[in-house]
C-alpha cells in the first residue's frame, strides 16, 4: 500500500515541479508581516500542503511521541512518589499517635500509683479512727463505770451515815 502511495507520489512530484518552483518564487518574495493590509489568499496546491505536512510530522512526530511517553512516565512516577509520601506521612502520624499513647500510659501509671498510695493512706486512717473510736468507747465505758462506782460508793457512805445516826429509842 505504501509502495503504491510512493509511486503516486513519484509521478505527482515530477508533475508538480513547476508548481513547487512557482511556490518557492512566491515564498522568496518578502512578505511584510506588519503591513496593515491583509495578505491575499495564496493559491497552494493541496498535494504540496499534504506533503509538507507529512514531512513536518515525520520530522517532529517521533520526538513529540517520545516526549509524550517521557512525560507520561514522569507523571506516573510522580503519582507513585505521592502515594509513597502519603504512606510515610501516615506512618509518622501513627508514630506520633503511639508516642502520645505511650505518654498517656506513663501518666496513667503515675496516677495509678498515686491512687494506690491514697488508698493505703485511707485504709491506714480508717484503721486509726476505728482504734480511736474503740479507745474512746472504752474510756467512756470506764468513766461511766467509775461514775457508777462513785455513785454506789457515795450511796453506801450515805447509807452508813444514816445507820450511824443515833436513832431515838422507842418507848415501850
From TrEMBL:
A UniProt-annotated Pfam family: Snapin_Pallidin
Name the domain of life. Eukaryota
Task: Give the protein name, as stated in the record.
Answer: Biogenesis of lysosome-related organelles complex 1 subunit 6
Q: What is the lineage of its organism?
A: Eukaryota, Metazoa, Chordata, Craniata, Vertebrata
Alphabetically sorted, this entry's keywords are: Cytoplasm
Q: Which GO terms describe its cellular component?
A: BLOC-1 complex; transport vesicle
Where in the cell does this protein reside?
Answer: Cytoplasm
The entry's function note states: Component of the BLOC-1 complex, a complex that is required for normal biogenesis of lysosome-related organelles (LRO), such as platelet dense granules and melanosomes. In concert with the AP-3 complex, the BLOC-1 complex is required to target membrane protein cargos into vesicles assembled at cell bodies for delivery into neurites and nerve terminals. The BLOC-1 complex, in association with SNARE proteins, is also proposed to be involved in neurite extension. May play a role in intracellular vesicle trafficking, particularly in the vesicle-docking and fusion process.
Q: Where is the composition biased (Basic and acidic residues)?
A: 143-164
UniProt region (Disordered), positions on chain: 1-40, 143-172
Q: What species is this protein from?
A: Nothobranchius korthausae
- Biased composition regions of type Low complexity, renumbered to the chain: 17-36
Family under the similarity heading? Belongs to the BLOC1S6 family.
Amino acid at each position: 500500500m505504501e509502495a503504491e502511495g510512493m509511486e503516486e507520489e513519484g509521478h505527482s512530484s515530477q508533475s508538480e515541479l513547476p508548481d513547487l518552483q512557482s511556490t518557492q518564487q512566491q515564498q522568496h518574495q518578502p512578505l511584510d508581516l506588519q503591513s496593515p493590509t491583509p495578505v491575499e489568499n495564496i493559491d497552494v496546491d493541496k498535494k504540496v500542503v499534504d506533503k509538507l505536512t507529512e514531512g513536518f510530522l515525520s520530522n517532529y512526530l517521533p520526538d513529540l511521541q517520545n516526549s509524550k511517553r517521557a512525560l507520561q512516565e514522569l507523571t506516573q512516577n510522580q503519582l507513585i512518589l505521592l502515594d509513597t509520601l502519603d504512606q510515610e506521612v501516615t506512618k509518622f502520624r501513627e508514630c506520633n499517635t503511639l508516642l502520645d499513647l505511650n505518654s498517656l500510659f506513663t501518666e496513667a501509671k503515675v496516677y495509678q500509683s498515686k491512687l494506690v498510695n491514697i488508698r493505703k493512706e485511707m485504709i491506714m486512717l480508717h484503721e486509726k479512727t476505728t482504734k480511736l473510736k474503740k479507745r474512746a468507747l472504752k474510756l467512756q465505758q470506764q468513766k461511766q463505770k467509775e461514775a457508777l462506782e462513785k455513785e454506789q460508793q457515795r450511796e453506801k457512805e450515805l447509807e452508813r451515815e444514816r445507820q450511824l445516826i443515833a436513832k431515838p429509842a422507842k418507848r415501850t
